[in-house]
């Protein structure tokens, strides 16, 4: 991680997972310009809790951090669960204007819904890429990345995200959670403290269909989304993009043969 804006203690193990919708990453990273999918009412839509201080942190060992703000309609909730190693926190993301049956409660066919902003995007969604094999991610992004929810240590926000708990109790829970790290950051505003929770790699919450299949590898993704992937490769590798693509495909074949 290359950054001069905050310090992170990665000595603490961070992992997260599970059965409830913990994705919805497209509601941070893929929101269309001006949120055009929201239609004519967007100016009147009620602001939901995520916009009060939840962000998505994209980070990689040799990459500069990128911070994404959520759609103003995104709801973010914490839920406490019991695991074999004790109590843990999970994240639930919901679209505040689409109904629970549509989005993003475990995605629910979101990329296939004709009125969703993912429907006409000739590209895999970011959560699909997040779950993809390192070989694909390394080729397309030039580095493997990690994603974290960053929750601002802000009384107003903390009082809204953990049903049944006050802001003080939520802060206490986050401080005690072994999967959480706390950082200081300056992200286009005054310095703040944030709690970081890693976005889980939970295959059960990835919606898949013919148009939005799980990425099996470089060749599979390239065959499906050629134009999109070529654009990224040209941006990263210039005239050498075809050679890099061929290298990645060869590597993939070698791994398959060894298996
Ligand atoms: S799996 Fe669904 S909700 Fe998650 S990022 Fe992809 S399209 Fe969005
Ligand atoms: S699906 Fe809902 S939360 Fe996500 S970007 Fe659209 S309006 Fe916002």
Can you walk me through this structure?
- With 259 residues, the protein is of the alpha+beta class.
- It has 2 domains: 181 residues, no CATH class; 44 residues, no CATH class.
- 28% of the residues lie in helices and 20% in strands.
- The chain is built from 8 helices and 7 strands, in the order αββββααβααββααα.
- Strands 2-1-5-7-6 form a 5-stranded antiparallel sheet, with no helix packed on it.
- Strand 3 and strand 4 form a beta hairpin.
- Helix 4 crosses helix 5.
- The radius of gyration is 19 Å and the shape is globular.
- The chain binds iron/sulfur cluster (2 copies).
- The site of one iron/sulfur cluster has 15 residues, from helix 2.
Distance between the termini: 32 Å
How many domains comprise the coordinates?
2
Q: What is the oligomeric state here?
A: single chain
- CA radius of gyration: 19 Å
Q: Specify the number of helices.
A: 8
Report the mean per-residue pLDDT as an integer. Answer: 83
Associated small molecules: iron/sulfur cluster
The dominant shape is: globular
The overall strand count is 7
Largest sheet: 5 strands, antiparallel
Short description:
The protein is α+β, with helices and mostly antiparallel strands and 259 residues long. The protein is built from eight helices and seven strands, in the order αββββααβααββααα.
